[in-house]
Amino acid sequence: MSSSGGDRPPATAVYAVLRAAPRAMLAVDPEGRITYANEHAAELFGHPTADLLGQRLEVVLPAGPVAGDLHDAVRRDGSTFPAEVRPTSLETEDGRLVALAVWDITARRAREAHLEYVSRAYLSLVEMYEAIVRAPDEAALFSETCRIAVEAGYLGAWIAWIDDDGVVHRAASEGIGLEAFLDRFELTLDPSAEAGQGPTARALREGRAVFSSELRDDPSTRTMRQWATEFGIRSSATLPLRRAGRTVAVLALYARSAGEFDEQMQALVAAVSENVSLALERFVAAERLRVLAAQRRDLARRLVLAQEEERARIAADVHDDSVQSLAAMDLRLGMLRRQAAEAAPALVPAVDQLQEMVESVSGGLRDLLFDLETTDTTVPLSRLLREAADHLFEHSDVDCLVTVDDSGWDGRSTLAQTNRVQALRIVKESLINVLKHARADRVSVEVVPGAEGVQVTVTDDGVGFDVGSVVTRPGHRGLVNLRDRAAVVGGWCRIESDERGTAVVFWLPYDEAGPDWMAPGY
Fold first, then answer.
1. Closest Cα to residue 445, out of 461, 437, 456?
2. Angle between helix 348-372 and helix 381-392 axes, rounded to 10 deg
3. In this structure, what CATH number is given to the domain that contains residue 33?
C-alpha cells in the first residue's frame, strides 16, 4: 500500500458499500468501463452481473454518467426506460472511480404525466364552465364545449343531438380529421341493430355515461373500430346531456391513449356533462321567461291602453257635463248677484260664497282633467314633464326645475309608449303630492336615460314624512299606486323621506322600441 494512498479506501471496500445499497449501483473507471454492478443493477438492466463487468457504460446508459433524467436507459432486450442518474466521484487505492446510483423513473414520469393531464383537465373544466355561463344559445354552447375539449388534449369531441322526430344529428364537432371519421360513423337507436350497440347509441338510448378504455378490445365498438383505429382513437367517454330530465344529446370525447378515463377523469367529465345539461335547462327557462316577458309586455300595454281609454272617457264626460254645468251655474250666480245687489243687498255675501264654491269646484275639475288628459306620444318625455310641472305650479310659489342628464344614453334606445305613459303618470302624482302636502319651496325632476332604461328622480325640500307609517286607505292608494305603476311595466319605484324633504326615484326599462322620446331640443 503506497503512502500517498493511505487515506484512500481500496476499490473492494467501495464495491462492498455499493453491494449494500438499496438501489441499482454501478462503478465506472476513467475509461468509461463498468468495474462493478450490484444485483439491483443487474435486475434493472436485465444483464447478469458478470456480463456487465468490463462493458462500456454506453451499453446501458448511452448518455454517460450525467446527472439528471435520462430518457434512453437501455435494457438487455433493447427496450428503454427513463432513468435518473446521480454520479459520485471517488478516489481509491486503485485509482478514480465514478459510482452511479440509477433509478427507473417510469412510474414517476407516469404520475407526473397524469398529474399534468388532470391539471389540464381541471383548467379545461373551468373554461367550459365559463363557456356555459357565456353561451347565448345551444349552438354556441355545443361548439365551445367541443373546442375546449380538444384544446385540453382530447383527440376529438362531438355532440349527437336527437330531434323531436327521434332522428340523430351532429350538433357540433372538433378535431383534425374527425369530420371524415364521423361521416363513416353508422348510428341508430335500434338496440337490435349492430350499429345500435355502440357507446353513442347506448348513451342516447339509456341516458347514462358509457366509457370504453380500449376500443380495440371493446365488443360494442366493433362497427367503428376500423375507422377509430385509423383516426388514432384508443379510448372514449360518451356522456348524456339532459333537458327537462330527458336525454336529448350526448357528448363524445375521444382520447389517443388506452385507459385515459380512469375513475378520477370519469368524475371530471361527468361534471362537464351535468353542467352542460344545466345550461340546456337555463336556455329552456330563458325561453319561458322570454315568452312570459312578451306576455307581460302585452298585458301591460293592454292595461295602460285600457286605463288611458277610460281616462279619456271620464275626461270627456266631466268636460261635457260637469264643467259645462258649473260654467253655466257661475254665469247665473253672477246675474243673481247683480239682481240681489239691487233688490236684496243682504243676500250678496251668500251669493258670493256660493260663487266661490263653484269656482273652487271648477278649479278642482280642471286639475282632474289635467290629470286625466291622454299622453301625446309624439312629444319627448322631457317636454311632457316640463308642461306638467308648469301647469301644476303655475299659481304657486314653488320653484320647479326639470333637467335631463343624457351622458349615459346611447342615442338610440327609446322608452316604449306604454312605459312613457307610466313615467308621466308617476311624475304627475309625485308633483301633486308635493303641491298638496310637502310645503316645499323647491322641487326638481331629473331624467337620466341609461343603457337599459330611464331613471327619474322627483326631489323636494319640504317637510317630509315617515314613509313606513303611511296607511293605504280605500280610494287613496298613494305611494302604493306609484310602485304599482312602475312594477306593471317591469320597473321599480322607491320613496325616501326625512325632515330635509322627499325623493321619489323610479326606473323603467326601454323594453320594446317606441317613439323617439329623447328628440333633439328636449
1. 456
2. 170
3. 3.30.450.20
Verify that 183 and 228 share a domain, yes or no. Answer: yes
Q: Do the Cβ atoms of 362 and 327 come closer than 8 Å?
A: yes
Tell me which DSSP letter residue 5 carries: G
Work out the number of other CB atoms within 10 angstroms of the CB of residue 266.
Answer: 14
The position carrying cell 317591469 is 490
Together in a domain, 55 and 135: no
Q: Does 366 have pLDDT greater than 80? A: no
Whether 467 and 478 have beta carbons less than 8 Å apart is answered as no
Nearest 5°: CA angle at 231, between 225 and 235? 60
How far is Cα 340 from Cα 337, in angstroms, rounded to an integer? 5
Lowest-confidence range among 87-91, 295-299, 380-384?
A: 295-299
pLDDT surpasses 50 at 520: no
For residues 118 and 80, state if they share a domain. Answer: no
Has residue 299 been placed in a domain?
Answer: no
* pLDDT per position as a tens digit, 74-122: 999 999 999 999 999 999 988 899 999 999 999 888 888 877 877 777 7
Residue with cell 327521434: 166
Q: What is the pLDDT of residue 475?
A: 43
Q: Is 172 contained in some domain? A: yes
Planar angle of CA 518, 396, 399, nearest 5 degrees: 50
pLDDT at residue 517, rounded to an integer: 35
- Say which DSSP state 266 is in: H
pLDDT over threshold 70, residue 49: yes
> Domain end: 88, 104, 120, which one?
104
More confident residue, 413 or 504: 504
Do 517 and 502 touch, CB atoms closer than 8 A? no
- State whether 126 and 38 are in the same domain: no
When divided into structural domains, the chain yields a total of 3
| pLDDT value of residue 102 | 93
Longest dimension (CA), the chain: 163
Strands 453-460 and 442-449: antiparallel
Residues 265 and 155 in one domain: yes
Q: How far apart are CA 195 and CA 202, in angstroms?
A: 10
How distant, in Å, are the alpha carbons of 115, 374, 383, 420, 459 from that of 369? 78, 10, 19, 19, 25
Examine the domain organization and report whether 97 and 131 are in the same domain.
no
pLDDT in tens, 316-337: 665 556 666 767 777 777 788 8
Is 263 part of any domain?
A: yes
CA separation, residue 278 to residues 29, 107, 144, 211, 239 (Å): 67, 38, 15, 22, 14
Do 266 and 408 lie in one domain? The reply is: no
Asked whether the predicted pLDDT for residue 34 surpasses 90, the reply is yes
Domain boundary among 243, 266, 287: 287
Domain that holds residue 247: 110-287
- Predicted TM-score (pTM) of the model is 0.50
On whether both 97 and 148 belong to a single domain, the answer is no
Q: For residue 370, tell me if it sits in a domain.
A: no
